Structure formats: C-alpha cells, structure tokens
Amino acid sequence: MKVKKVKKSLFIALLIITLNIIAVPLASAADPTVSVNGNAGFTPAGFSGTGAPGDPYILENKNIDASSANGIDIENTDAYFVIKNCTVYDGGSSFDGIYLENVTHGRIENCTVYNNTVGIYLYLSSNYNNITGNTAYNNTAGIVLSTSSNNSTLTSNTVYNNIAGIVLSTSCDNTLIGNTAHNNTLYGIFLYTNCDNNTLTGNTACNNTNIGIVLSTGCNNNTLIGNTACNNTYYGIVLSTSCNNNTLNDTYVHNMVWDFASDGTCADNVAYNFHISCYPTNISFTYDNGIALVGVPIGSLPPTPLGLKGIRMYVNATNATATSWILLNISYADPDVLGVYEETLMIYRWNGTAWVPADGSGVNGVNTAENYAYANITEFSNFGVLGKAIPPVGGFVLPAEFPSYSVMFIIVAIAASAAATIFARRKLQP
After folding, report:
1. Would you say residue 41 lies in a domain?
2. pLDDT in the model for residue 185
3. How far apart are alpha carbons 430 and 427 in whole angstroms?
4. Domain at 33, CATH number
C-alpha cells in the first residue's frame, strides 16, 4: 500500500509539472533588426515579393528588440512594401521602432511599437505612405511625420502613454482619419512648424495630461472635421503662433480648463458646429487677436431676471489681448425655445452684477429660420441665450430657468385634465 501511494503521488507531481510546462510556453527569441537602403536591399533583408504595386515586398510577424539599432530601418526606396503584424520594442532613448527616411509607397499595418524613442517615424520626404491600425505606447513620441513627409495617410492608429501621441512637423498634405490618442503626457495630436493643408477627420484626443490637439507655429489651411477632444487636463484644442485660415467643423469638446484657445497671433480661423458638452451647447465662431472658450454647466451661473428666460446654453469666453473679438453663434433646436418668444432671443453677458445684452458694434440678434442667436463680442465674460418669457400657463408660475420642455408637459397635463373633466360631465348627464 505504501508503495502504491508513493507511485500515485509521484504520478500526480509529474502531471502537475507537465501541465505547468504546457501552460507557460517559452518566450520566443527576438528576431534581428532589419535594415534596407535602396530597393535592392529588400530581398536580402528578408522581404518576400517583388516590390510591384500588385506584389509588394512584405515583412510580417517579426518580434524585434531595438535596443541596439532601429528595429526596422528603411531608407531611400520607392518600391511598394508592407510591414505588418510586427512587434518592435525597447529602443529606449537611442533608437526608433520603425524608421522610414526618404521612402515612398510604404505601408505599415497592425504593428505594435513600445519603449522606443519614436514608435513609427517617417522622416525626410517620406511621401505617399500609409500607416494604419498600429498601436504605439510608452515611446517618447508614438507616430511622427517630419521634414517634408507629405501626402501620407494615418488611419485607425492608437497611441497612448507616450510623451506626445501623433506629431507632424514641417509636413503638409497629410490625412489623419479615425486615430485615437489618449493618456499621453503632453499632447494627443501635435502639428508643429509649417504644417499646412492637412486634414484631420474623426480623430479622438482625450484624457491627455496637457492638450488634446495642438496647431503651433505657422500651421495654416488645415481642416479638422468631426474630431473629439475631451477630458484633457487643460485644453481641448489650441492654436498658437501664427496659425491662420484653419477650419474646425463638427468638433466635440469637453475639457478641464478651456475647450478652445488661440493666442493673439492667429487669424482667420473659423469653427462651425463646435459641440460643448454642457447641456450640450452647439456654437460657431470666428475671432481675432486671441480668445478662449469653454462650456458652462447649468446651475453655476446667476438666475436670469424676471420676465426673461434662458434656453440653458452658456459659454464662457475670455480675451488674450485688449483688442480681441469674437463673432459668436449659439444654435438651438425648436424644443429648446418652448416658453420663450423666439423672435426676442439675444445673447446676453453676465457683467458681474446683472445679465445685459452682449455688446459689440450693435450686432446681436437671432436668426429664427436657421435657429441660432448671434453677437459680435468685445467684452468678455459668461454668455447665454435669453429671450422674453411667455406668460405663465394655467396659473403656474415658471422659474426663469425652468426646463423649456417641461412647459410642454404642463400644457399636456392641463389639456388632459380638461378633457377628463368634460368626459366625466358628459357621462353624468341624464
């Protein structure tokens, strides 16, 4: 019996060891770094394919330690190539994960790059490249296009826990679509120094420690459409140092300090359908000489005076210089103006003691056909859309900030009560 117990115990112990070995496979050894200089270098470096548009050179499924050199380094090529499903790591402060210099027709897809100087770096006239579906984290910068790297497309990349997420420097005519930049130390998306004619569509830059999206130092004629910059510690979107003629459409912002800020050197920028997540409030604006804007939560401002009623949309605006101005539109929907004479709507300013019509060249009114109030503003403070209140209904006295949609419910309730009374009377008739 004792021998059987020993054998049984030994069998169980061996089984446990075997299962542990199966459950924890050995880590795969790192692949060597890859270096290509000129089209002739692709095949010796381990790429398959011929480099033609329909048969590109392909490098895939590599696991590369970049601690001794750039993980994948390609220079001076114009052949078509694809790098996909590769992992490149540990370049530290000396080496990049994937580095392209003077390269066209490259595609980098579904790669993971981390702990490098730059995760994916396009440098020196690297044009017509496509960077899609990659993940870059714990790098100094996640993805960088620099020094005349133009006409490239960045799509659906995720960059996080870098100092800067996506950076464009002296690079024009690029397209950024559907990228996500979050939890980066300084900036989510950063366009710096003469980055012109770039298009940013549907990108998300949220929860970054400093700023979501930045255009700085001569970045002109860029178009930003449908981007989101939320929950960044300081600013959502910033324009600084001679960034002119930029357009922001359908932008969603809600940040800790300012949703939008521009210094006094930036001019001729315009924003349409700028969605501030307080109510929410939808604004459009153009400005000069520097301004900053942020949505204001309902209930944080003094009540409107007797006889006026707000439509629950408020914006705080401040000036960067003594000559700052902003032409501000605040949009509304038809249900927002229940309980208000729509034609009396104006933008009002809180002057510290009272709500007064916003100043500025006498431009202040409402466009009832297109549902927005507008004002030219040169004195800055908190602003809201107010109008003459419709008199109380059925003896009810509504507070000035009573939700407009509640008026409809009261009217419906009164009508229902009246109908019930009539119906009851008819039933009682002989």
Report:
1. yes
2. 97
3. 8
4. 2.160.20.10
pLDDT value, residue 322: 95
Q: How confident is the model at residue 152 (pLDDT cuts 50, 70, 90)?
A: very high
Count of domains forming the chain: 1
377 within domain boundaries:
no
Nearest to 213 by CA among 173, 271, 264, 267: 271
**What pLDDT digit, counting tens, does each position of 155-203 carry?**
999 999 999 999 999 999 999 999 999 999 999 999 999 999 999 999 9
Q: What is the pLDDT of residue 130?
A: 98
**Does some domain include residue 114?**
yes
- For the stretch 393-421, pLDDT in tens is 665 544 444 444 344 433 344 444 544 44
What's the pLDDT at 394?
61
Range of the domain at 153: 21-162
Amino acid at 160: Y
H/E element, 341: none
pLDDT of residue 396: 52
Give the integer Cα–Cα distance in Å for 142 and 139.
6
Has residue 423 got a pLDDT over 90? no
Work out whether strand 141-146 and strand 325-331 pair parallel, antiparallel, or are unpaired.
unpaired
User: Residues 272, 284: contact at Cβ < 8 Å?
Assistant: yes
Could you tell me if residue 80 is inside a domain?
Answer: yes
